[in-house]
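Because discrete structure vocabularies remain unfamiliar, we first show an illustrative case, written as a sequence plus integers encoding its fold.
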Amino acid sequence: MVEALTTVVGVILSLLLFGAQNGLEFAPLMFLAILYSSIVFFSLSFMCSEVFRGSTLAMLIAFGVFIASIVINGILIYLPSMSDVIKVIPTWAATNFPTLVMSKLVTGFGTVDTNALVQASIIIAVYAIIFILIAAYRLVNSDVSKKTG
């Protein structure tokens, strides 16, 4: 819902503030890119809610991990020797994936680092799969119906 609102408001504001725009046909693809990059946070929240069984605690932990990874990313960006470590942090992929997709769509295939785009999409998928597998394991092994029967 938030992703759709972000995309629609962005298109509307760009039209109102700047007039006719080039590349508006990419808006649905950008919505999908934003949605895909959000899977990291959604699956992290799902995992936390299954592991801790408290929705407030789960959201606080998920937000904490998200904010901590932003802070860590902000610190490590100034250390050239850590450029590979930065790309493993969940927020690097989640924040850069939509930008990389849009750059690829607007400028074409020659000017954007295709490796970074592929790497971001793989990192998002790996984090999402890990978080969902942990949540599924916890759900199967602590199902309430098994305890009450």
Remarks:
- The chain has one domain: 37-148.
- The CA atoms of residues 138 and 144 lie 11 Å apart.
- The mean pLDDT is 83.
- The helical segments are 2-18, 27-52, 55-76, 83-86, 90-107, 114-141, 144-148.
